Queue: 2 jobs
Job 1
Amino acid sequence: MTDHHDTNGRERTRVYLTGWCDGLPELHETLGRHPEVDLVGHSESVADGAGALAGGHLGAVLHATRSASLPNDELAAIREHSHAPVVLLASGEATSLLEDALDADVADVLLLPQLTENVVFAIRKAAHAGRRAAARQGRDGRIVTVFCPKGGTGKTVTATNLASALAKYQGKRTLLLDLDLQFGDAAIMLGIEPEQTIQDLVTAPGELDPDKLAGYTTRHACGLDVLPAPVRPEDAELVTEQKLTRLLEVAKQSYDAIVVDTSPFFHGPMLATLDRTDELLLLCGLDVPTIKNVRLSIQTLELLSFPSERIRVVLNRANSNVGMKRSEVEAALEHKVRFELPSDRAVPLAVNRGNPAVLSEAGCDFSRGIRDMAKGLLVPEQGKAKKRWLSLPTRA
Ligand SMILES: Nc1ncnc2c1ncn2[C@@H]1O[C@H](COP(=O)(O)OP(=O)(O)OP(=O)(O)O)[C@@H](O)[C@H]1O
Ligand SMILES: [Mg+2]
């Protein structure tokens, strides 16, 4: 593993280099050895660098151009994969580019040759400004928690598919957090083998911030970031309520959506998560024991003062012909069913292949249900707000 800090203990700025211009080989060479820069790689074409740009947790992108004017196509291609600030490099003749760049979404333009220290300063300044802009933007991610008090009802299937759909089809920056701390299998269902888990994150020294969080997540090919459960069940207790609270606060700053998979218990970290949950997907099935336990959970949630309008009942395997109807579930729970997911053979097949159905079998009924759910979540309920105004008591 590379050391992420320079000799002064400062975080090295991660940089990816794209494009080409005169003087670039020399700069590449000196940047590669510079203690304050972590040069992740170089590809002349932006497309070849897509993976590193998207998953590289970059502080800045350096793009070298031979064009005398602004390389709009390349900049757009970079923006498709990365939100990191872009520093343009050009050779000495490209002076007209400087004018154009004033209005463009670029952090800086440097005409080569330059002293390496000038380039490093521009990189650090751009990365710093980028971090501040992200903090100011105050991304306020929504926390969507998937829960059911019974095991095997489809929590992990729902959480992994929903998170993949939000990332891939809704273009949301999405984190999947596996809070089934003892026996979490979200990573397996996604077919990834992460090197780090939530345990590494909570036992790491120092304060957690968005940059640090980025260093512990694993990127799935669909664009989703994943923070898996600890590898060994006995390590679950290391994830304390306090650590989890901080983790969720930081995740809200970096993501649009945080999807949380859970275990069938109201343990400490789960209560801390409920405290911050915006939408609780409460899974139910068409069987009496599950309905009974979901009903008990709703009562517990009431005792915990969890706002009942944040509960979304999801009926999984809704098409199963087992002598019970949706309306009976709604009557027993005293809650409307908000989403339905059909029982679908594609689901267990996809689970065993380690590739969520919504990605591998996009056309199947289950995947359609998941995509509807992804669209229906995270939207402010304007209708509701209006109704509340209308129902205010009026005096004659
Ligand atoms: N809609 C569905 N159609 C077909 N199979 C399903 C569906 N939902 C869940 N399953 C199957 O049920 C199994 C259990 O689902 P899952 O692991 O998601 O449940 P869980 O609630 O996370 O269980 P646990 O409480 O053990 O974590 C999965 O292997 C999956 O194949
Ligand atoms: Mg599960």
Job 2
Amino acid sequence: MKRNAMYPGTFDPITNGHHDLVRRAASIFDRVIVAIAANPNKVPMFPLDARVDLARRVLQDVPNVDVVGYSGLTVEFARKNNVSVVIRGLRAVSDFEFEFQLANMSSHLAREIETVFMTPQEQFTFISSTLIREIAVLGGDVGEFVHPIVEAELKKQRRV
Ligand SMILES: Nc1ncnc2c1ncn2[C@@H]1O[C@H](COP(=O)(O)OP(=O)(O)OP(=O)(O)O)[C@@H](O)[C@H]1O
Ligand SMILES: [Mg+2]
């Protein structure tokens, strides 16, 4: 049986930490759907179509990966796309509390869905989209943490 997984998130924007997780998940599962949430209550820096476009371009070196945007419940997306595994990343203990709550809630909403946690390689543990956005807006160098395509887009957001 083919095993598909989805990796949901905001990806605002996609970082080298996300990329590392996708690459490793793609070596475990037959197909990985990177599902980018519209997430209107997070007020993203990049609109959904830009986040999808950036992720597609950054992940084009990973063959069994699809990138799609979605709105609505993650469990509904999983059901509609016949996905029973949701991948989430755990960087540090600080991620644990929210991720644990989210995984429990999703298994209450949809019993058939399993959440699988992956940890990044250690050089990616401190990377978050929030920090990358903050550094970029203030004119800092984020070239070490994101793909050059993303770096170029972030440069346009510089405010100082
Ligand atoms: N560097 C990383 N290593 C491992 N997992 C990560 C990393 N960055 C994000 N993730 C995980 O990827 C999933 C989607 O994350 P999300 O899109 O919220 O990115 P984020 O970096 O946490 O962004 P934000 O700071 O905007 O919340 C979450 O499970 C998150 O824990
Ligand atoms: Mg996050």
